[in-house]
Write a structure and sequence with these properties.
Layout (H helix, E strand, L loop, with lengths): L6 H34 L15 H28 L8 E8 L2 E6 L4 E2 L2 E4 L4 E7 L4 E5 L4 E5 L5 E5 L5 E7 L11 E7 L1 H9 L9
Length: 207
């Protein structure tokens, strides 16, 4: 079983490592080639470099390889993007209201909290909107972030797979106390969440 809090973490981390790996290989390859040419074509050795003109295979290689690398990075990145855009029809919906400088979570049974409580192994659909300036809902441990706008509703999806409490931050500068706009998402066992969810809204206790 994965130790990551969501499968999306593995997807994002893989894409990051893939891009970094390609970058390191290119860096080492280019550096080694530069060093090789420095010694091979050193003036004291008398080697005279010759320009290459019209080499079909070289031109094909330096066009094809970068194109394949860029397309592969796009493919893996887009795959990860689709994971948080394809929201299942049975997802548990929570409305998120952002304002300077806090998040409020509104459940369909009338509960309102300043901490996001969700059941483990359950698709979660966040329907988000700001009541003032633009914000951004960011859960670093889940590798997900989405703008929260005043002008329209934005959506975010995740499926928590590990119990615990994870930081939630605003990732869009929204005013003087932007750095204080922190809360958390608490992933509970389903039975514990059901018990918490069944409590009447007036008895809701946050954090």
């Amino acid at each position: 079983m994965s130790s990551a809090p969501t499968t999306h973490v593995e997807t994002v981390d893989f894409v990051m490592l893939y891009i970094v790996g390609i970058s390191v290989v290119l860096l080492l390859g280019i550096t080694a080639t530069m060093i090789y040419f420095v010694f091979k074509y050193h003036r004291k050795k008398g080697h005279q470099p010759v320009d290459i003109h019209g080499n079909f295979w070289l031109e094909l290689i330096w066009i094809a390889i970068p194109t394949i690398l860029v397309l592969s990075m796009f493919y893996f990145g887009y795959t990860g993007f689709r994971e948080i855009r394809d929201i299942p029809s049975n997802a548990f919906k929570v409305k998120v209201e952002a304002m300077m400088w806090k998040f409020t979570f509104k459940y369909e049974n009338g509960k309102q909290t300043d901490t996001l409580y969700v059941p483990i192994d359950t698709p979660i659909h966040l329907e988000m909107k700001s009541v003032d300036v633009n914000h951004a809902f960011y859960i670093p441990a889940f590798r997900i972030k989405e703008d929260v706008l005043n002008s329209q509703v934005t959506n975010l999806y995740f499926k928590p797979e590990k119990l615990g409490m994870y930081d939630v931050a605003c990732a869009e500068y929204c005013g003087l106390k932007h750095s204080m706009m922190y809360t958390a998402v608490k992933v509970l066992p389903k039975t514990d969440f059901d018990t918490w969810y069944a409590v009447k809204p007036v008895e809701t206790i946050t954090k």
